[in-house]
Amino acid sequence: MNTAIEIKKGIYWLGMNDRRTHIFENYWPLPKGVAYNSYLIVDEKVAIVDTVERSHMDNYLENLEAVLQGRKVDYLIVNHMEPDHSGAIKTLLCHYPEMTVVGNAKTFPMLANYYGVTRNLHEVKEGDTLSLGTHTLAFYMVPMLHWPETMVTYIPEEQLLFSGDAFGAFGTLDGGIFDDQVDLDYLEEEISRYYSNIVGKYGMPAQAALKKLGGLPLSMICATHGPIWRTHIADIIARYDKWSKYETDEGVVIAFSSMYGHTEQMAEVIGRYLGEMGIKKIRIHDTSKTHPSYIINDIFRYKGVILGSCAYNGGIFPTMETLLCELENMGVKNHCLAYFGNKTWGGGAIPRFKAFAEKIKWEVVAEPAEACGAMKTTDAEQCKAIAEAMVAKLKA
Ligand code: FEO
């Protein structure tokens, strides 16, 4: 059955829902699946904007052919080369061998390396346009949002922006495809998790893109994942602006790693003190249970971060090491940090936390606490001091 949807006259959504893949980029959990949005413009010329992940090829081609009714595809616009959007390129070229692939100078080496495609290429630069007849495509470069070749495509006649991954979301499109047709409350975490997990490292490029595109009138934002924005455009732009400036709310994320419960006990005590001191947004995560995806998402939300780990073979616990490496890699900015550890003999967590603090350059608000096994009165006092210092900083 043809599931393509006309979103404006002559412009179609050709997206595919993926409810089978468990992890995105072979790393980030997909509890609510993900949609790969491809778009088709049928005018005097026919153009596709981005494709889908290759495992959805059969249904994708079926929808495409159902809309085109024997017409050929003239252009494929490649806003982004990551394979969840470029996966259909080779097959499309088999079906439409005369199709011209439109990209920029950074697109084509990737196209050659990934798919061996080196012919029928049309290179565009910032501000270039391509007429399809009644629709004009205008191209804007948004490098490192979140790959170097990334660009967006704008149709001025419709005030419509094909934004690539920007303004995207995890989660399948269950029924509706527009932001006013889907349950945005249900997708809330998937929208912010998509930003923090996938785009979050690139706050400055995101800011540059927002400034560059800020002058364009917009009636519709068509991202490559998640709902099409037409009613809540100002809201999603405002959220991207806030996230990419690393602006946070008052709250504290406590992430701990604990083998036998002693480090968890310290986390509980710190959380309790924070609660008594008036902090309501407290999120306590066990790194052995909760994927970094969710912890990082909460860290993007809240200013305070308190990390605790037991020692493990003279170092830090492996799941905490994973979280620290991820945060260091992302270069998340603008947080207040405190940390604590627990040891049975020589320790190992505290030196790693210290190195992390120096690398990520968050403001350390308190001396670290380090207990030996079960908490003693003096350990509880150290935990209280951490909570007090964090609250003082957040309320300042
Ligand atoms: Fe959805 Fe960067 O690929």
Automatic annotation (TrEMBL):
<protein>
    <submittedName>
        <fullName>FprA family A-type flavoprotein</fullName>
    </submittedName>
</protein>
<dbReference type="Pfam" id="PF00258">
    <property type="entry name" value="Flavodoxin_1"/>
</dbReference>
<dbReference type="InterPro" id="IPR016440">
    <property type="entry name" value="Rubredoxin-O_OxRdtase"/>
</dbReference>
<dbReference type="InterPro" id="IPR045761">
    <property type="entry name" value="ODP_dom"/>
</dbReference>
<dbReference type="GO" id="GO:0009055">
    <property type="term" value="F:electron transfer activity"/>
</dbReference>
<dbReference type="GO" id="GO:0010181">
    <property type="term" value="F:FMN binding"/>
</dbReference>
<comment type="similarity">
    <text>In the N-terminal section; belongs to the zinc metallo-hydrolase group 3 family.</text>
</comment>
<dbReference type="GO" id="GO:0046872">
    <property type="term" value="F:metal ion binding"/>
</dbReference>
<dbReference type="InterPro" id="IPR036866">
    <property type="entry name" value="RibonucZ/Hydroxyglut_hydro"/>
</dbReference>
<dbReference type="InterPro" id="IPR008254">
    <property type="entry name" value="Flavodoxin/NO_synth"/>
</dbReference>
<dbReference type="Pfam" id="PF19583">
    <property type="entry name" value="ODP"/>
</dbReference>
<dbReference type="InterPro" id="IPR001279">
    <property type="entry name" value="Metallo-B-lactamas"/>
</dbReference>
<feature type="domain" description="Flavodoxin-like">
    <location>
        <begin position="252"/>
        <end position="396"/>
    </location>
</feature>
<dbReference type="InterPro" id="IPR029039">
    <property type="entry name" value="Flavoprotein-like_sf"/>
</dbReference>
<dbReference type="GO" id="GO:0016491">
    <property type="term" value="F:oxidoreductase activity"/>
</dbReference>
